[in-house]
Amino acid sequence: MAEEGANNQAQSQASSGKNPLLAIVMILNIVLMGGVIYMQLETHKKMNASMSEMDLIRADMGNATAEGEDAEVEAPQEEQGNLLPLDGFTANLAQGDGPRRFIRLNAVLKLSSDAKDEEYKARKPQIRDAIISILNAKRPEDLLKVQGKEHLKEEIKAAINTFLVEGRVLDVYYVGFQIN
Fold first, then answer.
1. How confident is the model at residue 38 (pLDDT cuts 50, 70, 90)?
2. Residues 6+ apart with CB under 8 A from 177
3. Is the pLDDT reported for residue 30 higher than 90?
């Protein structure tokens, strides 16, 4: 009985003893987590230190106002224009190998200053038809890229400008752009 008690006590000490491998893994885990936290803090500091796009725009605007009236004279008249919001579009995209996909698009047209709203309102069905036709010919892979979105803007602009008599479309702005 004394021997059994000694055996049980030795086994309980062996099972409750610390595993050195577990301790090493825990220490390594803590060190790696500290490294990840350090890298994230450094990246965050760099991002805050660099100028964002809005900061650059504000700086440019500040320079333009500091230069005075000269900046206003140099500004091209072409950039001035009216905005015409379009109704939302939902169109099927060209089908590839995958499932059927569609696009939801909300856009605003920037019109030249000599454009008349009456003409655009009268040609609204033509504008919608041109945009839907362009969207139906596009594949989802093309529109997911930034260059594809910019190319789509140029195509829409060119298509609308072909049938306008007075004025023209200067730019197309996406208000909503979703591909499903």
1. very high
2. 103, 104, 105, 106, 149
3. yes
Its pTM stands at 0.54
pLDDT, tens digit (0-9, with 9 covering 90-100), for 170-179: 899 999 888 8
Cα(151)–Cα(128) distance, integer angstroms = 18
How many other CB atoms are found less than 10 A from the CB of residue 133?
Answer: 11
pLDDT at 2 over 60: no
Contact 92, 102 (CB under 8 A): yes
Q: Which of 117, 163, 159, 120 is nearest to 136 (CA)?
A: 159
Give the 3-state secondary structure of the chain: CHHHHHHHHHHHHHHHCCCHHHHHHHHHHHHHHHHHHHHHHHHHHHHHHCCCHHHHHHHHHHHHHHHCHHHHHHCCHHHCEEEEECCCEEEECCCCCCCCCEEEEEEEEEEECCCCHHHHHHCHHHHHHHHHHHHHCCCHHHHCCHHHHHHHHHHHHHHHHHCCCCCCEEEEEEEEEEEC
Question: Is the pLDDT confidence value at 8 over 50?
Answer: yes
* Distance separating alpha carbons of residues 50 and 27, to the nearest angstrom: 35
Phi and psi angles of residue 83, each rounded to the nearest 5 degrees, phi first: -105, 135
Contact 179, 141 (CB under 8 A): no
